[in-house]
Amino acid sequence: MTDAGITLAPAQVDPELDGDHERMSHIVLEGFKPEKGDFISAGPSVVQGMVNGTAVKALCGKIWVPGRNPKRYPLCPTCKEIAESRGWKVPAG
């Protein structure tokens, strides 16, 4: 896989879920481009999620509707570890 389409997206706080995980930016794999071929979508993009209220899924498995500025939150260590283990460039958080 090359040119992975990954985007940082902050989680909205849900009081019924683990508080610490809610206060992190997560990495969403929006798709990838194989060495030969066109871009392949892996699900809704963060922009689609914010505009249409569509849930997205982070590398760590968290599913939520994005709606906040990811630069305000630290990067989820699980998402970061998964991305780095696959050799992807991790966006600056």
Structural notes for this entry:
The chain is an alpha+beta fold. The protein has one domain (2-85). 22% of the residues lie in helices and 26% in strands. It is built from three helices and five strands, in the order E-H-E-E-H-E-E-H. It has helices spanning 19-22, 46-52, 77-85, and strands at 2-10, 25-33, 40-41, 56-57, 63-64. It has a three-stranded antiparallel β-sheet, with helices on one face. It has a two-stranded antiparallel ribbon with strand order 4-5. A hairpin with a 5-residue loop joins strand 4 and strand 5.
In the sheet with the most strands, the strands line up as 1-2-3
- The share of residues in extended strands comes to 25-35%
What is the H/E string? Answer: EHEEHEEH
Q: Could you estimate the helical fraction of the residues in percent?
A: 10-25%
